[in-house]
Amino acid sequence: MKVFSGVQPSGILTIGNYLGAIRHFVRLQDSAECLFCIVDLHALTVPRDPEDLRRDTRTVANLYMACGLRPERSILFAQSHVHEHAELSWLMGCLARLGELRRMTQFKDKSHGAQEDVAGFGLFAYPVLMAADILLYKASHVPVGDDQRQHLELTRDLAQRFNARFGETFPVPEAMIAGVGARIMGLDDPTRKMSKSEPNPGHYISLLDPPEAIRDKVKRAVTDSGRDVRLDWEGKPAVSNLLEIFSLIADEPVPSLEARYGRQGYARFKRELGEALVAGLAPIQARFAELVADPSYTDRVLREGAERARVQAVPTLNEVKERMGLLGAR
Ligand code: AMP
Ligand code: TRP
């Protein structure tokens, strides 16, 4: 089993990123060979201030480690440090079809339904680069949140298409999408996925929010009519989302939370959820503070990670070029 996943360096990471993805990375690193990437090239698909992007790339590296990823165990690196990603992306792009890229819902959402002649090409080509990320390491498993399901399907299609045309080369990678936590919803609107790009900070909880902000955001989170705390995604989407978050962060089954808070109204439930989040994020925040104090350590981890990643990336890229008919340089 070989695991690959990535997170975009876009400022903050939310508890959605943690509960839907990074928590699983941490668990997997003990049983599988793992690569975890900070996909800085993907971040360029929307306009970014250069200094912010550099800072955010280090922040995600530090958050990876603060959440429990160990550089001695997993390969942690920045996508742009391994230029083979961009190169394989071109080669895979020659197999991808306009129609299948146009159907990607993330492209449709992020281009805000803009006319195609003004939507960015990077945004359009985004899933091809993501496929290249995964295939470059011949990864067999890709832990992601539910929103990446469609991109993984495209990756599988491209792998199969390549194998059919040029001979068996890539394992067809499987998405690992958890049953619970793969889609944490916004605190202000349980019909929308929690996302760090939302302008209203009350929408999400950042892994680096101070305790007061966490308590306040949970207090203000929308709830449903009635007063009973129970899991019912149809009838009580807001409370169900909070219950799911509570269960994951406190590592306590939902039925046990329902038994404790069921008929007591929302106030105590929300107060104790706030405390559970503060307690759950405290060790991450403490470790993060240590890591930020020493940027040279972070840079060294990324440099060494990229070297180790390239050892795997180069042979795959050479194999692909050879199979596609490019003349070897030596
Ligand atoms: P991104 O921030 O878009 O780079 O996402 C990084 C990882 O976090 C991906 O695997 C996403 O699917 C996952 N993720 C992002 N938002 C959520 C959410 N609200 N709930 C669960 N997983 C999420
Ligand atoms: N597209 C993913 C996201 O926005 C990030 C990503 C890029 C990724 N390359 C990847 C995830 C490869 C898994 C594997 O969340």
Report on the structure:
There is one protein chain. This protein is mostly helical and 330 residues long. It folds into two domains: 2-177 and 294-323, HUPs (Rossmann fold), CATH 3.40.50; 201-289, Orthogonal Bundle (Tyrosyl-Transfer RNA Synthetase). The protein is built from 13 helices and five strands. The protein has a three-stranded parallel β-sheet with strand order 1-2-3. Strands 4-5 form a two-stranded parallel sheet. The chain is globular, with a radius of gyration of 21 Å. Residues 7-8, 16-17, 20-21, 144-145, 147-148, 182-184, 193-194 line the site of adenosine monophosphate (AMP).
Tally of domains: 2
Assigned CATH class of the largest domain = Alpha Beta
What is the CATH architecture annotation of the largest domain? Answer: 3-Layer(aba) Sandwich
The CATH topology assignment of the largest domain is Rossmann fold
Q: Quaternary arrangement of the chains shown? A: single chain
Question: Largest sheet, if any?
Answer: 3 strands, parallel
Mean pLDDT: 95
Count of DSSP H/I helices: 13
Shape: globular
State the separation between the terminal residues, measured CA to CA: 33 Å
Radius of gyration: 21 Å
Q: How many individual β-strands?
A: 5
CATH superfamily of the largest domain: HUPs
Structure keywords:
binds tryptophan; 330 residues; mainly alpha; two-stranded parallel sheet; Tyrosyl-Transfer RNA Synthetase; Rossmann fold; binds adenosine monophosphate
